[in-house]
């Protein structure tokens, strides 16, 4: 801010120097009146921000003042050029460059440390007295997230609510046939539409370009006139021309920043917007989608494809506008100075256009393949890194390296092809056609014209200087087209994902943050309604199910189960009989292919998916923890005010307090990515504490205590039983391989081959002479582990 004011001061000094200079030079009083009035206004603007410090309003005001100074500088420059007044030219350039530099600095983003944000989200709490405050911070963090998300200010993705429209779901096959011209145009149009919300920055960039144009175009002119003046031994004129070149070049340089910054800024906003939309789209897909799409592939779409597709987009706007205007300017200049030589220079353009079209089409097809190959390689790398312990344990480093190298080789080959074609392109267009053929032809024709006294050497020199600019601009223009085509190639996969309408049961459209207003309203409604306790009388009626990725392999067949509200049901059976599948269906990760699941008489499909999931607490065999602290993980998913005492209480219930207290940072101990810094049993206890804290209406325990030793398991079991006794409103489904865990359940279901073979209490089932359950219990080991039948 101080620097901005410093440059503003410099601009002011320039103005007063001009004013004083004018006083002794001429009587263009009207001009000075205009300048002084505009400067007075700018001064006024500058005094206001000094009242307050560094806030957004003062920055805006300073920018306003500096913009006014820029305009003043430009006005002086124009008037200086028209009236050939060197004083006005120098003064104008001074004001313009100083104001531009100040304006530039005002756009330097304030340093916002990401770590600081993280700290707000995971506020450490060691002191009980500060608990209330830290709890507030914890809740502030949710708001913080929402505010951060709002900063985008635009959304490209329209969140459609009609996810239940089945007709829209049959889009699994890629919709883009790259070779089809209409699809290509559609892809390119979609890509251009991405830039629509950024028109302000793009227009501003175009304006900067247009203002800059005469200044940058005039440089070769001054070079030729200087050399011509030197040729005629007119040193005074040469000095004058050099000074003009310096002034115009300085203005050109100051404006160059804006062309780069504004287009680049628009570019960053587009990439950010596409990433946010794509991430929102990915996380609201149905679970089956993730069975067939690897996380590596999806993260590659988010990282590489998004930046690739938007990366060249804004350069398209920049170069298409800049090159077009420059070409028009240069062609006009050349035609005025020598029509014959001008026509010779232009005849190369059609050849460049044709070669560029062919190159652009090829580039697009190759870009799609490159992105696909990169996504494949990323998927392999991510899988290997995520499972590095298994890779090391099996000494499979070489195998994983081979897999990765095979995929990356494919991408390498495609990139080498691209390099080869780029080399051919530059060789034929830039070096041969432009540098060699055109230059030689121009010099040859030019020397002929000079020998016939139809041209002066000065004009030929100007032509040589301008023609290289012209050819560069022509290349830029066509390349901006090829870049756009290439970007749309990289964007194909991104658009495919963005367009994918997830079939039910996908996450409700309102649950993602792509539309802040709806999210906030819905959240409030949800938080209000979530307080109501829901009765979970669960019925599975004639359930048939096969996983979408294996449609011909039935997992559950005509399955009937009933779990009355507040009761517990244990599912036992051999490995692969479908126990976890039932847990998945109850969470509505998948919909059954036949039959229906009813909750308190209501079909699960008709229920609000978010409401339903927020009533559920789940603990799985290998619970997933998130990087962050133990406290963050225990409170994960809880959307109400949680006190530290409550966190401690649930940790005690889950028998997690013992090991937590042994860590020096206690509840603020970080657990590492996916909780790698904890043992399996510790992770399970944190997951149990997390489930208890949610106070769910339906508790799903899928081998929840399998990683605990016998003593810990018994302790956790007793704690859970005690909790159930106090929470008779909770319905529980338990999957376990330990007799002790299942025998106290209100009902036990024995599953085999996707059917329920036996059902009843432990005592009832044990009374059956040839019962499968009884047979299994009798074969249980001394540790009470039920065998796999
Ligand atoms: N995402 C999936 N896609 C396709 N098939 C699956 C998927 N998950 C599980 N299966 C298959 O469904 C069947 C039932 O699996 P499920 O996980 O329900 O068994 P389980 O009874 O929980 O076994 P375990 O006791 O070993 O955990 C298995 O044959 C399994 O191969
Ligand atoms: Mg299982």
From TrEMBL:
The chain crosses the membrane at residues 31-49, 61-80, 86-108, 200-222, 242-266, 315-334, 340-359, 424-450. Residues 538-778 form the ABC transporter domain. Residues 135-147, 513-523 have a biased composition (Basic and acidic residues). Residues 174-184 have a biased composition (Polar residues). Keywords: ATP-binding, Membrane, Nucleotide-binding, Transmembrane, Transmembrane helix, Transport. It comes from the Eukaryota. Residues 125-184, 500-523 are annotated as: Disordered. Residues 125-134, 159-169 have a biased composition (Acidic residues). One of its GO terms (molecular function) is ATP hydrolysis activity. It holds the Pfam family ABC_membrane. One of its GO terms (cellular component) is cytoplasm. InterPro entries: AAA+_ATPase (IPR003593), ABC1_TM_dom (IPR011527), ABC1_TM_sf (IPR036640), ABC_transporter-like_ATP-bd (IPR003439), ABC_transporter-like_CS (IPR017871), P-loop_NTPase (IPR027417), Type_1_exporter (IPR039421). Signal peptide: none annotated. It is a multi-pass membrane protein. CDD domains: ABC_6TM_TAP (cd18572). Residues 204-486 form the ABC transmembrane type-1 domain. It is found in: Membrane. Its main location: membrane. The keyword Chloroplast does not apply. This is ATP-binding cassette, subfamily B (MDR/TAP), member 6.
């Amino acid at each position: 801010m101080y620097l901005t004011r410093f440059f503003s001061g410099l601009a002011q000094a320039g103005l007063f120097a001009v004013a004083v200079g004018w006083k002794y030079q001429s009587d263009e009083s009207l001009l000075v009146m205009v300048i002084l009035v505009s400067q007075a206004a700018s001064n006024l603007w500058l005094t206001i921000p000094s009242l307050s410090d560094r806030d957004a309003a003062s920055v805006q005001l300073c920018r306003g003042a500096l913009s006014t100074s820029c305009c003043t500088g430009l006005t002086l420059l124009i008037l200086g050029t028209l009236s050939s007044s060197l004083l006005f030219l120098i003064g104008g350039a001074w004001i313009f460059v100083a104001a531009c530099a100040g304006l530039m600095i005002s756009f330097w983003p304030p340093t916002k440390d990401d770590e600081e944000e993280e700290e707000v989200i995971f506020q450490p709490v060691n002191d009980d007295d500060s608990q209330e405050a830290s709890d507030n911070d914890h809740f502030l963090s949710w708001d913080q997230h929402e505010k951060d998300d709002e900063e985008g200010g635009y959304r490209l993705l329209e969140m459609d609510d009609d996810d239940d429209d089945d007709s829209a779901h049959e889009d699994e096959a890629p919709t883009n046939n790259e070779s089809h011209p209409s699809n290509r145009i559609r892809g390119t149009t979609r890509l251009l539409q991405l830039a629509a919300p950024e028109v302000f920055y793009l227009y501003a960039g175009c304006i900067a370009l247009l203002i800059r144009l005469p200044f940058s175009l005039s440089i070769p002119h001054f070079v030729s006139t200087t050399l011509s003046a030197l040729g005629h031994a007119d040193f005074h004129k040469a000095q004058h021309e050099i000074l003009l070149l310096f002034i115009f070049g300085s203005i050109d340089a100051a404006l160059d920043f804006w062309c780069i910054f504004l287009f680049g800024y628009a570019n960053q906003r587009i990439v950010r917007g596409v990433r946010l939309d794509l991430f929102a789209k990915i996380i609201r897909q149905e679970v089956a989608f993730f069975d067939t799409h690897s996380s590596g592939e999806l993260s590659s779409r988010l990282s590489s494809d998004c930046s690739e597709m938007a990366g060249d987009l804004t350069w398209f706007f920049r170069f298409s506008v800049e090159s077009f205007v420059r070409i028009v300017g240069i062609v006009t200049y050349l035609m005025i100075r020598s029509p014959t030589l001008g026509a010779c220079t232009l005849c190369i353009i059609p050849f460049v256009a044709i070669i560029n079209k062919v190159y652009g089409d090829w580039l697009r097809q190759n870009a799609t393949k490159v992105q696909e190959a990169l996504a494949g390689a990323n998927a392999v790398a991510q899988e290997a890194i995520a499972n590095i312990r298994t890779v090391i344990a099996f000494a499979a480093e070489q195998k994983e390296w081979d897999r990765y190298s095979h995929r990356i080789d494919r991408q390498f080959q495609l990139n080498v092809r691209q390099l080869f074609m780029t080399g051919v392109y530059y060789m034929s267009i830039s070096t041969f056609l432009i540098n060699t053929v055109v230059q030689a032809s121009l010099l040859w024709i030019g020397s002929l014209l000079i020998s016939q006294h139809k041209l002066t050497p000065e004009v030929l020199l100007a032509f040589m200087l301008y023609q290289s600019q012209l050819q560069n601009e022509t290349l830029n223009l066509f390349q901006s087209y090829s870049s756009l085509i290439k970007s749309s190639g990289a964007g194909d996969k991104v658009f495919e994902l963005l367009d994918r309408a997830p079939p039910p049961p996908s996450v409700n459209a309102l649950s993602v943050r792509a539309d802040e207003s709806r999210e906030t309203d819905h959240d409030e409604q949800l938080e209000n309604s979530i307080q109501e306790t829901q009765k979970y009388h669960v019925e599975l009626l004639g359930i048939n199910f096969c996983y979408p990725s294996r449609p011909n392999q039935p997992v559950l067949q005509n399955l009937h189960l009933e779990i009355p509200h507040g009761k517990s049901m244990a599912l036992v059976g051999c490995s692969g009989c479908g126990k976890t599948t039932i847990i998945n269906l109850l969470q509505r990760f998948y919909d059954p292919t036949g039959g229906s699941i009813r909750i308190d008489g209501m079909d699960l499909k008709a229920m609000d998916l978010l409401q339903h999931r927020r009533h559920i607490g789940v603990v799985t065999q290998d619970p997933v923890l998130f990087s962050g602290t133990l406290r963050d993980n225990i409170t994960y998913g809880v959307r109400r005010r949680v006190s530290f005492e409550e966190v401690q209480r649930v940790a005690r219930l889950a028998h997690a307090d013992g090991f937590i207290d042994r860590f020096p940072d206690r509840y603020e101990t970080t657990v590492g990515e996916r909780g790698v810094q904890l043992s399996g049993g510790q992770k399970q206890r944190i997951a149990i504490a997390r489930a208890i804290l949610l106070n769910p209406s339906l508790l799903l325990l899928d081998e929840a205590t399998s990683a605990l030793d016998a003593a810990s398991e018994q302790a956790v079991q007793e704690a859970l039983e005690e909790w159930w006794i106090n929470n008779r409103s909770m319905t529980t489904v338990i999957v376990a391989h330990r007799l002790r865990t299942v025998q106290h359940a209100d009902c036990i279901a024995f599953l085999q081959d996707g059917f329920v073979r036996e059902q009843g209490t432990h005592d009832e089932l044990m009374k059956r002479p040839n019962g499968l359950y009884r047979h299994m219990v009798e074969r249980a080991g001394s540790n009470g582990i039920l065998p796999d039948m």
